[in-house]
Amino acid sequence: MNNISFANGSAIFFAALLTLVMPTKGWAHTSLTSSIPANGQAVAEVSQLSLEFGAPLRLMSISLTDAAGKNIALEFKRSVTTQSRFVVPTNAALPASSYQVSWMGMGDDGHKLEGDFSFVVDPNAVTLTASSTAKPEISLFSGLQHPAAKAVLDFHAALKTGDTDAVIRLLASDVVIFEGGGVERSSAEYQSHHMAADIAFLKEMSIESVEHHVVVHGGSALSLARSNVSGVYKGKPIAHTGMETITLQQRNGNWQITHIHWSK
Predict the structure, then answer these.
(1) What are the pLDDT digits (tens) for 189-226?
(2) Which of 105, 106, 141 is nearest to 19 (CA)?
(3) What is the pLDDT, as a whole number, of residue 79?
(4) Are 204 and 8 in contact (CB under 8 A)?
């Protein structure tokens, strides 16, 4: 009985932390919520574009044109995974002019999204400095285009869809998993204990990404995430926010998860 209770709790802890996994239909139909530069803003210089969406999607295309209608080259590759924030560098600092950005994205359900915004580059525009009293912008998503981040997102998606082979493939054989005060010390132990409960729980839940950062140093990576989970499991309403810490190592050319810490 104690083992069953702990397994259910394990699933609840885990689901609260999954980020950017298979958006629901409501999430997929999202749009641009903010950008840097902001729509209509005058800035002194620009060397990259930042786009933040209300829910994860795949950014399929983005173009930048100046006041004369000339296309400006961007360092952009069509995304293969869904995410909420994209940073697209320009090949060089933009000269003074007005600019328009046009983008097109795709949700996992195939729903096409598109939009545009404009800004002005003016060397005389006022730029906020460190001494400014304005509140600095805080980015809630970063590093999600790295292959190590893809391994984390693939792990989340595999548990959400019940793909047990993919789950085990992405876990290092000696993975250590902390959750709910307990510990599992191998992928085989996780597979024989809490994995089935986690999969069953996630099938009934809706997950909303709140924050996700992936930092890579050589052959090691750290993934930090927050997410909201909601739904009904075995007649019990669920609604809370949780935390996830994942470490990864590159082994034999592949990123594998070596440690997970789930809490709420």
Answers:
(1) 999 999 999 999 888 989 888 899 999 999 999 999 99
(2) 141
(3) 84
(4) no
Collect all residues with Cβ–Cβ distance below 8 Å to 192 and sequence separation of at least 6.
none
What contacts 75, CB < 8 A, 6 or more positions away?
88, 89, 90, 91
Token pair in block for residue 3: 């083992």
Q: What is the mean pLDDT of the chain?
A: 82
Rounded to whole angstroms, how far apart are CA atoms 34 and 194? 39
Integer Cα distance of 115 and 29 in angstroms: 13
Q: Where are the alpha helices (DSSP H) in the chain?
A: 2-15, 25-28, 147-161, 164-170, 187-192, 195-202
Render 13-49 in DSSP notation, one character per residue: HHHTT--S-S--HHHHS--EEEEESPTT-EES--SEE
Average pLDDT (89-118) is 87
DSSP 235-263: TEEEEEEEEEEEEEEEETTEEEEEEEEEE
